[in-house]
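Q: Please design a sequence for this.
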C-alpha cells in the first residue's frame, strides 16, 4: 500500500497496473516522498511534528485508559466526534470557485464514467490474457456512445 501511495503520482490509479509497472513508478517518483515530512514546507515542519506527537500521545493515552474504562472512553469519543461532525456540517467553507461549481447545473456524467471504466476493464482483460472479454467491454463502451 505504501509503494502504491508513493507511486500514485506517476500512475493512473483507475487502470490495472502490473507489479513491474508499479515498481517502476515507485522508483520514478520524487525522492522526497521517501523521507519523513519530505513534502512539508520547511516553515511548518515543527508544527507538523508537534501535531504528530500530540496525536500519538493522545492515541497511547486512549489505549491505556480504554483498558480500565472502555465504555466511558468509547462514549466520550462518540460524543466528541458527533459534535465535531455536526459543527463541520453547519460551517461549510467554500471558496468562490467551489461555490460557483456547486451553483452551476451539472450534466449527468454516468454514461461517460461507465464508458471510461469499461475501457479500463478492457485494458485489464487484455493485459491478463482475456481478449474476448476485452472485446465485450469495448463493445459495451461503444454502445454508450462515449
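A: Design:
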Amino acid at each position: 500500500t505504501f509503494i502504491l501511495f508513493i507511486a500514485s503520482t506517476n500512475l493512473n490509479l483507475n487502470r490495472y497496473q502490473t507489479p513491474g509497472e508499479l515498481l517502476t513508478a515507485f522508483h520514478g517518483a520524487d525522492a522526497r516522498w521517501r523521507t519523513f515530512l519530505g513534502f512539508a514546507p520547511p516553515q511548518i515542519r515543527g508544527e507538523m511534528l508537534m501535531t504528530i506527537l500530540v496525536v500519538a500521545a493522545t492515541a497511547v493515552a486512549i489505549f491505556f485508559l480504554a483498558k480500565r474504562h472502555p465504555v466511558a472512553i468509547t462514549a466520550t469519543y462518540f460524543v466528541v466526534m458527533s459534535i465535531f461532525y455536526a459543527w463541520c456540517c453547519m460551517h461549510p467553507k467554500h471558496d468562490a470557485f467551489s461555490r460557483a461549481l456547486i451553483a452551476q447545473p451539472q450534466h449527468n456524467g454516468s454514461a461517460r464514467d461507465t464508458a471510461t471504466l469499461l475501457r479500463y476493464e478492457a485494458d485489464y482483460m487484455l493485459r491478463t490474457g482475456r481478449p474476448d472479454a476485452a472485446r465485450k467491454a469495448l463493445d459495451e463502451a461503444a454502445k454508450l456512445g462515449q
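Q: Thanks. Anything notable?
A: The chain is about 70% helix and 0% strand. The radius of gyration is 23 Å.
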